Amino acid sequence: MCVSCNTDDNDGILDFTHTYMTLTNTGNLSVGMPVYVLLGTMTFRESDVHSSETDNLGPFTISFQLSGYDAFSIATTSMTANSSANTATAVFSSAYQYVTPTGPLLYPTVGARISFSNSAYDQNYTWDPLQCGSSDTVNIYAQIQYFDTPEPATFILLGSALLGLGLLGRRRRKA
Fold first, then answer.
1. Contact (CB, 8 A) for 121 and 92
2. Residue scoring higher pLDDT (69 or 104)
3. How confident is the model at residue 38 (pLDDT cuts 50, 70, 90)?
4. In this structure, are residues 94 and 131 in contact, taking their beta carbons and an 8 Å threshold?
5. If 145 and its partner were Cys, which of 34, 99, 118, 149 is the partner (CB 3.0–4.6 Å)?
6. Running DSSP on this structure, what letter comes out for residue 161?
7. Hey, which bits of 45-151 come out as E strands?
8. Which of 124, 23, 12 is nearest to 71 (CA)?
9. Residue 127: what are its φ and ψ, rounded to 5°?
């Protein structure tokens, strides 16, 4: 354990600091092409993980919003700590969370998931304990992707075709 490190050890809580970014531009989003957007960083602020800090670890949630859409609120699927290895691990689901536009359906549905990498989807990260003069910091990205959603006219056309086929089949059975 390093006394000069800026930590809050053995208090029953795993300590992290975070920074966050304000999303102003998500780049060129096109249907089916994921874009990675930096949401901020998380730094592990422990030099030792004690057994009291591994109990009752709950998930943490990352929330953000894209203009014109409902807010995303994505929680870890698991958050674990290991006192013998002095590590903490966060895992996010690999499934996308979907939100729809807040106004008229002019845009496709957008999906997002949290990644610890900006080039390939990476759903988990393990922080190591602090050494004096160092920190274990990870960037947190949102992998954002637009998905095609059928327009209402498509549903009306499909529904009327199925209704017509159903009526045609019923007429044939009566004859």
1. no
2. 69
3. confident
4. no
5. 34
6. H
7. 61-64, 72-82, 87-92, 97-99, 109-115, 124-127, 136-147
8. 23
9. -85, 140
Residues 154-169 pLDDT 10s: 667 777 888 888 888 8
Residue for token pair 């901020």: 40
Q: Hey, where are the domains in the chain?
A: 16-149
Please give the pLDDT value at position 11: 64
Distance CA 7, CA 46 (A): 5
- The first and second tokens of residue 24, run together, are 């102003």
Residue type, 127: W
On whether the pTM is more than 0.85, the answer is: no
Per-residue pLDDT of 23-34, as tens digits, reads: 665 566 677 778
- Name the amino acid, one letter, at 75: A
What is the band of 3 on the pLDDT scale with cuts at 50, 70, 90?
Answer: very low
- Residue 130: name the closest of 80, 86, 85 by CA: 86
User: Which two structure tokens, joined as six digits, stand for 130?
Assistant: 């602090």
